[in-house]
Amino acid sequence: MEFNGVILEDTYAEGFPVWVARVVITAVSKEWAYKAATEATGFATSTIGCPCEAGIEKFLSASETPDHRPGYSILICCGKKALKEQVLERIAECVLTAPTTAVFNGKAGSEEIIPVKLHFFGDGYESKVEVGGIQCWSIPIMGGDFIIEEEVGAVKGVAGGNFLIMGDSQMSALVAAEAAVTAIADVPGCITPFPGGVVSSGSKVGSKKYKFMGASTNEKFCPSIAAKVEDTEIPAGVKAVYEIVIDGVDVASVNAAMKAGVQAACRVPGVVKITAGNYGGNLGPFKFQLKDCI
Amino acid sequence: MEFNGVILEDTYAEGFPVWVARVVITAVSKEWAYKAATEATGFATSTIGCPCEAGIEKFLSASETPDHRPGYSILICCGKKALKEQVLERIAECVLTAPTTAVFNGKAGSEEIIPVKLHFFGDGYESKVEVGGIQCWSIPIMGGDFIIEEEVGAVKGVAGGNFLIMGDSQMSALVAAEAAVTAIADVPGCITPFPGGVVSSGSKVGSKKYKFMGASTNEKFCPSIAAKVEDTEIPAGVKAVYEIVIDGVDVASVNAAMKAGVQAACRVPGVVKITAGNYGGNLGPFKFQLKDCI
Amino acid sequence: MEFNGVILEDTYAEGFPVWVARVVITAVSKEWAYKAATEATGFATSTIGCPCEAGIEKFLSASETPDHRPGYSILICCGKKALKEQVLERIAECVLTAPTTAVFNGKAGSEEIIPVKLHFFGDGYESKVEVGGIQCWSIPIMGGDFIIEEEVGAVKGVAGGNFLIMGDSQMSALVAAEAAVTAIADVPGCITPFPGGVVSSGSKVGSKKYKFMGASTNEKFCPSIAAKVEDTEIPAGVKAVYEIVIDGVDVASVNAAMKAGVQAACRVPGVVKITAGNYGGNLGPFKFQLKDCI
Amino acid sequence: MEFNGVILEDTYAEGFPVWVARVVITAVSKEWAYKAATEATGFATSTIGCPCEAGIEKFLSASETPDHRPGYSILICCGKKALKEQVLERIAECVLTAPTTAVFNGKAGSEEIIPVKLHFFGDGYESKVEVGGIQCWSIPIMGGDFIIEEEVGAVKGVAGGNFLIMGDSQMSALVAAEAAVTAIADVPGCITPFPGGVVSSGSKVGSKKYKFMGASTNEKFCPSIAAKVEDTEIPAGVKAVYEIVIDGVDVASVNAAMKAGVQAACRVPGVVKITAGNYGGNLGPFKFQLKDCI
User: Fold this and answer.
1) Are B161 and B288 in contact (CB under 8 A)?
2) How far is B181 from B199, CA to CA, in rounded Å?
3) Residues C167 and C271 sit within 8 Å (Cβ to Cβ)
4) Cα separation of the two ends of chain D
5) Which of C67, C286, C69, C267 is nearest to C190 (CA)?
6) From C268, which residue of chain B is nearest by alpha-carbon distance?
7) Reaction catalysed (chains A, B, C, D) (predicted)?
8) Phi, psi (rounded to 5 degrees) for A241
9) What is the reported pLDDT for D10?
10) Which of B169, B175, B268 sits opposite C269 (nearest CB)?
């Protein structure tokens, strides 16, 4: 199977359920909304070592937000129990503290409502206010008044969408990964939570040599030791592999992101092969076939 | 006391000790080093609700790094016990996973060495390697080989440097805060951990009305309710207050940052007054006098 | 007339015809397309002293371009005669020379086709090639092959859309101007050609004192000398005025941009009044009423 | 000759004299100084088709500028006669018009002083003012007062510093070119005037096939037609070539830039060879040997 001269392996990415909340952050300028959104979605690449997975979903122009100011929607993804705390803390520490911001329910879905009781911060000086037809709280702070819609919708979404880009040079694979992330950024409903959207260090469960390790490098996909690894998955001539990991609010979003990302990667010169990671269907119920990406 | 026509209150910021680790992150490009550094220092505005305080200290040109690639140094600040975990997790989840990065000891100080035993991730395929005269580990990963110096120096530094900018309009105060952050970015040894470097919502300990709250809005510094707050600190005509909070490796760094920041803020039209926050000397041993800033 | 508490003067912006060409620039990454587009639209604020007016119209995702790579569309605006040269030179010097770029006809309109005969640069090594169903030339260069569609459509559009933002502080007016530019960036078919989209120095035709000057400061709109200028247009309390100038492919685009920009500016705290510039209807046939902006 | 495993050809770049003016642009924020500097240095890649060559030299922190605000220095390079007009027009159209900016003499050298008589724009409302010990004009404009030092120093500098980066993939060469540009950005006294600092389309004088062309593609350095060009300079396995062109205020600056750039490029994986362009010493008096770069 080929697309634009690149080999696509006939395999699939294996996704699994994750809880996803969408928060809308607006500010007086695009830049300040971005700074708040970036801080709020930092240290959030993987639930293995971070408290959650999070990322910026997309820019919202003034015409798309309740207070008619520019904004960004972010997605916060993790287990149901942790989600409540993560949404609250990331808003309280990274958005409430950011100049001129306001927070609205991004309505990821109606399955669950996460309460974000920040109005108590107002110590009695807070008041109810309607903004764009929405009931909000207005909390007096140093910078002015912080507006917040205190209920944020969460939905059982999909984690673990992924594909791997193999390049004839490290830079071919890297720029292709960047192109994939750029393309996925235009797909609503999903994020690529790793730094710059790209994973450089894939892992396997456990370790053959160090029994105390819960995870270790996935040697089969490491080009620099391909000659030493009997069951290497690195084709001849491949110098680097980068993975794109996708979380989304539903299967359709992850599907669309996989398609946009794979095609974008295949348009960068020097990409040799695309494959995807799965656990033989044992981990999750969602299969994203690479053949559906072209 | 005045500087450039702006009133400086004769008061001081009260700093207290914090443990600080400096990590150097390099990459094939300035952009990728920045992306990794941003992810690694996210969700880290205040130890009240975040696991640590962290930020980018400065850009390092290729001539300043061990592997002669562009990089950024970051500071991670928190209690001694939490620091070890934060340094390890933020490197493991946000830098190791980022394309083309390497990690070196930024040598915040020699008081303590934090071990970052990431080489076990290599599952036996790792090897020792010398880079720029430094003993490192080379860990095979999908993107190539991840180079890491596994010992990161930490030092007992200073948290809580701060000053408050009062403006005749919200935007005067905001742009002045931005100018202060830009100026402080050029001062080595310190960071401004809040979103975009600025604090919009100052807090007081506890709450008068809601006893279950550990902190609540500092109503004395809230312009929108100045008329309702008897002991308000808001001068007539002030529409907004933004705070700059500074953490540093030592007193001298925070002093230099206070000076650079205060002066920069005072050069923005519409800034009316600068003051600083303290707890009467009960919280910390370090006093940063505003009069020393001019 | 008021919007969000801001006074709108009952006046209009006076637009006049200008020739507009739209060029689509794609590249291997969003960043490289942006760098080429920025270089190609530089030194192009006003036809008074620059060879043309130009700017980035909008980002195009991979799904919107002929070669399925990310890109930007730019508008180049000036007199009909100069347009041909400006389109050719700006493509030849600023896009052909930029890594991985391709150029396509942005189809501003069908009134005129500007030939861009760059294939001769190939010195006989060039060849015809079809990209996304479009006949293009492929020109061998150092970086690979440069793809160009050699016909660029131009249309008789509209220049001189404008409005002026008056603020209670310089920073209120400045941030409002930025917000207006951000909002207009989402409106297709138009650009704001000045630096960062904002004009700081309005001019009047000629000079009262220096007869050799073709233009000089419009003293009626200068806040710092309001007390000295008898017929000043500066209301009490206004500290700064910034103007947004808009060029577009047609009246509808400029209308939409005026509306989006005025409303966005009015949402920034500290904006006091919005007005617009005209010459009593003597300069151009297009009137953009501020009352139609709300 | 090798550096970091990359072949350096034993050749040299041939530089020639050019007039260079340095202008310092400050603003209320780093961002606005950057926007003005970017506009003022646009459409300025090569004097072959642009009115001049120009670029941002470096960021200046508040402590380095006369008005203690953040800024950028730019270099404008061309023939002596055109330089006066280019400096004047680019300041008048791209900096005077940009919000909050001021202009100071960057003192490229004392050989020549370019007068920038912008104070006439004030129409008699202008006044002399001292800023940071420098005699300036203060010109009332809509945004406030525009401060300008009306004499800008120019010096006979050096154009045409260059080197060519050959990669085993297009992306290897591209990222190496970016790395070179990043490294050169830290070298004072020089610029890389092409888009993003990189040249994708090298040219030769004249054309073999089209006699009316003054310049055409340098087929010897075009990888995609290497098999058809008898005297190709493309080594086996090279997929792309990018050139870095450097202008500077003196030989030492260009030397330092060549060294920093070549070394940075050689640290990117996949770079095969570095060479440089010259005309056998017939064009210019300055020789920059690649062997001096390591």
Assistant:
1) yes
2) 11
3) yes
4) 9
5) C286
6) B171
7) N-formylmethanofuran + 5,6,7,8-tetrahydromethanopterin + H(+) = N(5)-formyl-5,6,7,8-tetrahydromethanopterin + methanofuran
8) -130, 125
9) 97
10) B169
Q: Which helix (H) or strand (E) element contains residue A104?
A: strand A102-105
Average pLDDT estimate for D141-147? 98
Residue in B45, B48, B242 nearest the CB of A143? B242
Alpha carbon of residue B93 to chain centroid:
20
DSSP state of A273: E
State how far the Cα of A142 lies from the Cα of C94, in Å rounded to an integer. 47
A160: closest CA among A291, A2, A48?
Answer: A48
In single-letter form, the type of residue at position D255 comes to N
With beta carbons less than 8 A apart as the criterion, state whether D89 and D154 touch.
no
| Contact across the interface for B241 and A142, Cβ inside 8 Å | yes
The pLDDT tens digits of the residues spanning A18-39 come to 999 999 999 999 999 999 999 9
What chain D residue is nearest to C220 in terms of C-alpha separation?
A: D142
CA distance B63 to chain A (A): 22
Q: What is the pLDDT of residues B59-89, one digit of tens each?
A: 999 999 999 999 999 999 999 999 999 999 9
**A60 φ/ψ angles, rounded to the nearest 5 degrees:** -120, 120
Chain B residues with CB-CB distance to D175 below 8 A: 28-29
Token pair recorded at residue D89: 């027009």
3-state secondary structure C253-273: HHHHHHHHHHHHHHCCCCEEE
- The predicted-structure confidence for C118-164, as pLDDT tens digits, reads as follows 999 999 999 999 999 999 999 999 999 999 999 999 999 999 999 99
- CA–CA gap between residue A14 and residue A258 (Å, rounded): 12
Residues of chain B whose beta carbon is less than 8 angstroms from a beta carbon of chain D are 28-30, 61-63, 67-70, 144, 175, 178-179, 182-183, 186, 260, 263-264, 267-269
List the one residue out of A155, D204, A263 whose CA is nearest residue C70. A263
Residue bearing tokens 């009997």: A230
CB contact under 8 A, C169 and B174: no
Residue among D12, D7, D22, D9 nearest D152 (CA) = D22
Q: Are C100 and C32 in contact (CB under 8 A)?
A: yes
C: neighbours with 3+ CB pairs under 8 Å? A, B, D
Reading phi first (left if > 0) and then psi (alpha if -120 to 50, else beta), residue A237 is in left
Q: Which two structure tokens, joined as six digits, stand for A32?
A: 């300040």
Task: Tell me whether residues A30 and C183 touch, CB distance under 8 A.
Answer: no
Tell me whether strands B144-148 and B215-217 are parallel, antiparallel or unpaired.
unpaired
- Cβ atoms B164, B175 nearer than 8 A: no
Q: Closest Cα partner for B3 from B235, B276, B286, B265?
A: B265
Domains in chain A (CATH in brackets) are 2-14+157-293 (3.30.70.520), 19-155 (3.30.70.520)
CA dist., res. D255 & res. D253, Å (int): 5
Write down which chains contact chain B via at least 3 CB pairs under 8 A. A, C, D
CA–CA separation, C104 and C70 (whole Å): 12
| Residues facing residue A244 across a β-bridge | A163
* Token code pair at residue A7: 């080999």
C-alpha distance from residue B30 to each of A15, A41, B44, B114, C94 (Å) = 33, 21, 22, 26, 23
* Tokens at D128, concatenated: 């002399």
Alpha helices for chain B (secondary structure H): 30-40, 80-94, 170-184, 251-266
Which one-letter amino acid corresponds to residue A242? Y
Q: Is D285 exposed, middle or buried (0-12, 13-18, 19+ CB in 10 A)?
A: exposed
The segments of chain B whose pLDDT lies below 50 read none
pLDDT at D254 > cutoff 80: yes
User: Which pair of tokens denotes residue B236?
Assistant: 């007539």
Question: Which residues sit opposite B275 in a β-bridge?
Answer: B164
For residue C175, the chain B residues in CB contact (below 8 A) are 171, 174-175
**Torsions phi, psi of D104, nearest 5?**
-130, 160
